[in-house]
Write a structure and sequence with these properties.
Number of strands: 23
Number of helices: 17
Distance between the termini: 31 Å
CATH superfamily of the largest domain: Aminohydrolase, N-terminal nucleophile (Ntn) domain
Shape: globular
Number of domains: 2
Strand order of the largest sheet: 3-2-4-1-10-9-11
CATH architecture of the largest domain: 4-Layer Sandwich
Structural class: alpha+beta
């Protein structure tokens, strides 16, 4: 329905004796729903047993009061998923529960592990592990549940030495809640204080949603035990460089979240301002494609002096149902998701701000929709540089052959989408807007400069065929 990178996953953890931790986890996941809408799950522990409930659908579809009541204990982890390794099916929903030499554990994962296929074969052949899913997350879970080491710090260190790729993790055992982040720090993870306990989440917006106070981010390469009187670092791997995914700032994270001390709303507004300076246009109105591009559109309007308006209304719940539309409804396409305000758009020259063009399949329909609503000119402005390379770190961004900017010039893309003009924010302009050094980020989807050696064309379903 939209030509944008597919979301990452959302993870959450809570240690709060005396509290209804399953309910807290539910509302934490609710705040992270934008990171994945395929499946959701929560695992809890009472200090002896692990309890688990997962299913397909949105957080509000997966859980009922009875489900939360059965999830007993004082610690919980939760996960909301978009599939990047393994298909979208019930067996692949997380948290994943496994048994190992260190007992049972449940795990929630955000990211993508590049060497999961090799390690799954070794775990089956040499360690006797049995797999029930097609995910790299289950490989991580078995590896951690059977890792050598006297404690979770040493086992986490083994994990860091073994895995290659992106992994922010929440891990639950009968007596511990752990938070781990890969040495590159590709995916975000933070810790907050909550009513005498502690919470862990992919984004700070989830902390604020439940009334928790942000404490700090989990550092790249860090293993944190969250159930101690105070969050305790069990291990800290050497981190030669940082590589936080820059698309978290452009698109994935909510605008009310903070990363590296920066409010994402302000960062996106500055991206729009830089875009206006780099690619000005003669126009009557600036509009944004809801929702992620609205702050950037407002920034473009501020810097250009062109009035900002809401020209498209988004149906946020399209396709969020198990009832499949018939062909007549499906043929409506982009009109199901965006409804143009003709009274606002008719007779106007528009600057239309969006965060990305991936395959170039949906943007032409948006341009056509605006023209049918009466727009006389449509000038597309994109708050990211052209996406020329795929992402192996947990973002479903298509193969390189499918990426329109990998084999077409900006002018050729303009012709494909049918806009009157097209401008992308430059990589330098992006970092000027972020007000941070490029060395802190992974921008390989724009530059091709991956932080580790990668296989470019990875098969999302490879582990399901083993």
């Amino acid at each position: 329905m939209r030509d944008a990178p597919r979301e990452a996953c959302g993870i959450f953890g809570v240690f709060a004796p005396g509290e209804d931790v399953a309910r807290i986890a539910f509302f934490g996941l609710f705040a992270l729903q934008h990171r994945g809408q395929e499946s959701a799950g929560i695992a809890t522990t009472d200090g002896v047993s692990l309890f688990l409930h997962t299913d397909m659908g949105l957080v509000s579809q997966v859980f009922r009061e009875g489900d939360l009541h059965r999830l007993r204990g004082h610690m919980a982890i939760g996960h909301t998923r978009y599939s990047t390794t393994g298909s979208s099916r019930p067996q692949n929903a997380q948290p994943i529960r496994v048994e190992g030499v260190h007992g049972p554990l449940a795990l929630g994962h955000n990211g993508n592990v590049i060497n999961a296929r090799e390690w799954r074969k070794r775990l089956e052949a040499e360690w006797g592990c049995r797999f029930t899913t097609g995910t790299d997350s289950e490989v991580i879970a078995h590896l951690l549940a059977n890792a050598p080491g006297r404690d979770w710090g040493e086992r986490g260190a083994f994990l860091m030495r073994t895995l290659v790729g992106a992994y922010s993790l929440v891990v639950l055992t009968p007596d511990s809640l752990l938070a781990l982040r890969d040495p590159l720090g590709v995916r975000p993870l933070c810790v907050g204080r909550f009513n005498g306990g502690w919470v862990v989440a992919s984004e700070t917006c989830a902390l604020e949603h439940i009334g928790a106070t942000f404490l700090r981010e989990v550092e790249p390469g860090e293993v944190v035990q969250v159930n101690a009187p105070y969050p305790r670092t069990l291990y800290k791997a050497p981190s030669p460089r940082r590589a936080l995914c820059v698309f978290e700032f452009i698109y994935f994270a909510r605008p009310d979240s903070r990363m590296d001390g920066v409010l994402l709303y302000n960062a996106r507004r500055r991206m729009g301002q830089e875009l206006a300076r780099e690619h000005p246009a003669q126009a009557d109105l600036v509009i944004g494609i809801p929702d992620s591009s609205i702050p950037a559109a407002q920034g473009y309007a501020e810097a250009s002096g062109i009035p900002y308006a809401e020209g498209l209304v988004k149906n946020r719940y399209v396709w969020r149902t198990f009832i499949q539309p018939d062909q007549r409804i499906r043929d409506l396409g982009v009109r199901l998701k965006f409804n143009p305000l003709r009274d606002v758009l008719e007779g106007k020259r528009l600057v239309v701000v969006d965060d990305s063009i991936v395959r170039g399949t949906t943007t032409p329909h948006v341009v056509s929709l605006l023209r049918r609503a009466g727009a006389t000119e449509v000038h597309m402005r994109i708050t990211a540089p052209p996406i020329c390379w795929p992402c192996p770190f947990g973002i479903d961004m298509a193969t390189r052959g499918e990426l329109i900017a990998a084999h077409k010039s900006v002018e050729e893309i303009r012709q494909v989408i049918g806009a009157d003009s097209l401008g992308y924010l430059s990589l330098r302009g992006l970092y000027r807007a972020l007000e941070m050094e490029r060395g802190r980020f992974c921008d390989a989807c724009f530059s091709g400069a991956y932080p580790v050696e990668v296989q470019l064309e990875m098969d999302k379903l490879a582990l399901e065929r083993l």
